[in-house]
Amino acid sequence: MTFITANVLPAAPEIFVFSMACMILIVDLFLTEPRRVVSYLLTQLTLAGAAVLTVQGLAAPGYAFNGMFVADVLAGVLKLAIYLVTFFVFAYSRDYLRDRGMFRGEYFVLGLFGVVGMMAMVSASHFLTLYLGLELLSLSLYAMVAFQRDSDQATEAAMKYFVLGAIASGMLLYGMSMLYGVTRSLDIATVRQAVSALPPDHTLLVFGLVFVVVGIAFKLGAVPFHMWVPDVYHGAPTAVTLYLGTAPKLAAFALVMRLLIGGVEHLSASWQDMLVILAVLSMGIGNIVAIAQDNLKRMLAYSSISHTGFFLLGILSASPNGYSSALFYVLVYAVMSLGSFGMIVLLSRAGFEAERLADFKGLNQRSPWYAFLMMLLMFSMAGVPPTVGFYAKLLVIQSVVNAGLVWLAVAAVLLAVIGAYYYLRVVKLMYFDDAEDRSPIAARGDVKVLLGANALSLLVSMPWIGALIDLCRQAIQGIR
Amino acid sequence: MFTEHVLSLAIWLPIVGGIAVAATGDRRAPLARDLSLVVAIMTFLVTLPLYTGFNPGTHAMQFGEDYAWIEAFRIRYRLGIDGISLLLILLTSFSTVLVIVSAWRVIQVKVSQYLAAFLIMEGLMIGVFCALDGILFYVFWEAMLVPMFIIIGLWGGANRVYAAVKFFLYTFLGSVLMLVALIYLYYQSGSFDILAWHELKLGRIPQILIFLALFTAFAVKVPMWPVHTWLPDAHVEAPTGGSVILAAIMLKMGAYGFLRFSLPITPDASHELAGFMILLSLIAIVYIGFVALVQEDLKKLIAYSSIAHMGFVTLGFFIFNAQGIEGGIIQMISHGFVSGALFLCVGVLYDRMHTRQIRDYGGVANRMPIFASFMMLFALANTGLPGTSGFVGEFLVILGAFQVNVWYAFLAGTTLVFGAAYTLWMYKRVIFGAVANDQVAGLQDIDAREALYLAALAVAVLAMGVWPDPFLNLTHASVEHLLQQVSVSKL
């Protein structure tokens, strides 16, 4: 018996969240409509409990399930970030869902299953675990996007997402099978050893690598594999977009880290070139096309594409410095994205979606406080000091310069200036234009506090950035 | 305790005060006004000990502070001032008080936000002048764009949105290349310490690239010809206070950047590209002087005159002698007073007439004699009349230019003609003559509040013109040291 407990213990948070999700699914059946809030509270409780378990687990990192599962510092940090972000997501969406008759247990249960999927991804030390986690997340997301059953837009988005997601999974699996063919293992550490013994231009390896990178690029939404992103972000109910645009980014980062860095870092010369193309195209297309959008959700979708490009810059520096910068960037991005979509959810009322840019007109007249928060979020996305978004960009750029790619750093900052334009336009609408609709903004007390904390954290965390960076460095150290 | 943290206090007091002012909300304008005036005056008082406690005998950084911030990249919270930054800090805290006073009655929409933006900007500007860490400097430098963007866009004129966005993107574009240069310097030296960068050996090509990257940032801010086009737009559309801060302080940041970064970090590139810099400066002086001559908008005219005057500053810096650099510094301070005063004068007129077109005025002296005499003084200072502050800087720069090349001095000297021409002609059309129309006939002379801030500036302009030594003495040691740094090759 002792053997089993020792082996399973590192996966305690996953087991806990999964069991709770199943329980909530059953409990929800017996709840009457007015008491639906119990499901919500149980969900939030689950996340809090998982956080406690994960923090306890940090003290004793280790493997489980015959080395298929690892609980290291990186996994711990990412998991805690995922719980936190998801906690905010559920809190923000509560009223939005209720107004639209979508306040049902399934949303939370699917959300929790997605969380389990993400947790498996960040803790994977085996290609199969990684793939399992990815599929669990993706399937939950497909269902969530289609959650508003009667909406044509949402159904279309879900179909697109499903078909393209399936193609991406296929690519990834195909690439993995190639790697398996060469290395005869799916265990990431073993693959790593086997790869480092082979020449870095081994044909079959590089062939497999291409498919792996394509699969990752699809999942990340990097140009030219980005076409699903705007449609899905736009089509999905905003509460789902909020979920989809935040925590899964953290999991996607883990996907890159475990596959490219953990597994085939030895081939960095090959994937570096591929990532340069993906990164530059993503930043370029993402930032330029975002200018043409008049829908805020679509604009933020393109902005997420450009941010993906930026974080790929950190990865392609192929150094621990670059990886930790990318980790920092992704954490910051998740917070910014959370706040921005949270704002859209907040401004949306029953029967009205505040997703057009024009809906933000004159926000400063309606509520200086929310306008200020949104301004912080936008400037942070644009990377303007003193917001944290600037330090995230600074870190990535310094890692690129350190890798000797000064031209890439120059290209990145110039594209960031283009990007600044559309964020600035949101600020312009909020501050310089007159409001079309002067209805007061009603929000629950907890949402007010959480959203305030969310946006202000981008500013007030300034003195502690050094500590955060140290944490990111520590997380990256363990991975290799 | 106080003397150790006086710089931090000067930075954070207005920022925290600004947040407090913003927190008073939209409905309590009188409270916001009182509070912001108190904060501005307190900040000014906090910066005074910098002057009294400053030791002008050394070039070393004084009032230093140094704390760990982002240890992973050896980014530190490092502050300190020398004679050059001291003058600019005093100018900043002085101008902000005037701006707050000038906004007293004019601004009626979103009062607390307006005043808060200026206070926060004051803190950030002081931060720029005393930051001794590359990233800290960059943070202050960029963060300033945010309140200025809001100020122009929210309280500006008809075309304010265009001007605000242009201002932001133009300066943002200029700065990001500087960021890459700062990171490059970090990897060469192992820290973000600006003073360590002064000692850092660099090859010729890196020096030139760094110089150019810094140049894009500073030249846009100065602004030098041909990247000056954002300035007239921003000035014309900005509210009076915004114009004053832009002209009096923000433009000085670019010039300050040349002194703190470009000259000491890349001395060889500075020498190599000095001809180019001098050319741009002379074009600014001569060509922009002509452009100013044909302006029909009061603010635009003063904006162009600012560009020409800043051309003098950069000219002084890149002739590499003590007169040139000291003249440039004095010109910066003097221009801060004079252009600020002229923008305030235009503000006084605009508040009454709601037009900035020169042709709408005429004969103002008949109705506003006190105002006319104040404006006379500032107009003459703008032309560089001996006895006013405008003379000292221009004289020193021309003197320095003579030692290098007579033609530089000659071309720079033409400004005395053009400056007089566009300023006095503008003055004549606005102030003298018969009363032009009914609106002018109904003008009221300035009240005590307006007289107060114009008088304060008049005293400063005259004091600096008659007895510039207290100002010059502060900078001697720092300028000597700077010249020595520039003269030693790093190759």
Shape of chain A: globular
Q: State the separation between the terminal residues of chain B, measured CA to CA.
A: 43 Å
Number of helices of chain B: 22
Outline type of chain B? globular
- Unreliable segments of chain A (pLDDT under 50, ≥5 consecutive)? none
Oligomer class: heterodimer
Strand order of the largest sheet of chain B: 1-2
Distance between the termini of chain A: 31 Å
Organism (chain B): Candidatus Muproteobacteria bacterium RBG_16_65_34
Membrane topology (chain B): Multi-pass membrane protein
Subcellular location (chain B): Endomembrane system; Membrane
Keywords (chain B): Membrane, Transmembrane, Transmembrane helix
Q: What does this 3D model show about the protein?
A:
The complex is a heterodimer of chains A (480) and B (491). The model of chain A has no long low-confidence stretch (mean pLDDT 89). With 480 residues, chain A is mainly alpha-helical. Helix content of chain A is 76%, strand content 1%. In chain A, helix 4 runs antiparallel to helix 12 (247-263). Chain A has helices at 2-8, 12-29, 37-58, 73-99, 105-122, 127-145, 152-183, 188-197, 203-220, 228-235, 238-244, 247-263, 268-291, 296-316, 320-347, 363-366, 368-382, 388-402, 406-432, 445-460, 465-477; strands spanning 62-64, 69-71. Chain A has 21 helices and two strands. Chain A has a two-stranded antiparallel sheet with strand order 1-2. Chain B has 491 residues and is mostly helical. Chain B has a domain at 273-490. Helices cover 76% and strands 3% of the residues of chain B. Chain B has a two-stranded antiparallel sheet. In chain B, strand 1 and strand 2 form a beta hairpin. In chain B, helix 9 (204-221) runs antiparallel to helix 11. The longest helix of chain B has 32 residues, at 322-353. The relative contact order of chain B is 0.10. The chains are: A mainly alpha (480), B mainly alpha (491). Chain B: Belongs to the complex I subunit 4 family. Chain B: InterPro entries: NADH_Q_OxRdtase_chainM/4, NADH_UbQ_OxRdtase, ND/Mrp_TM. Chain B: Residues 133-416 form the NADH:quinone oxidoreductase/Mrp antiporter transmembrane domain. Chain B: Pfam families: Proton_antipo_M (PF00361). Chain B: Its main location: membrane. Chain A: GO terms for molecular function: NADH dehydrogenase (quinone) (non-electrogenic) activity; NADH dehydrogenase (ubiquinone) activity; quinone binding.
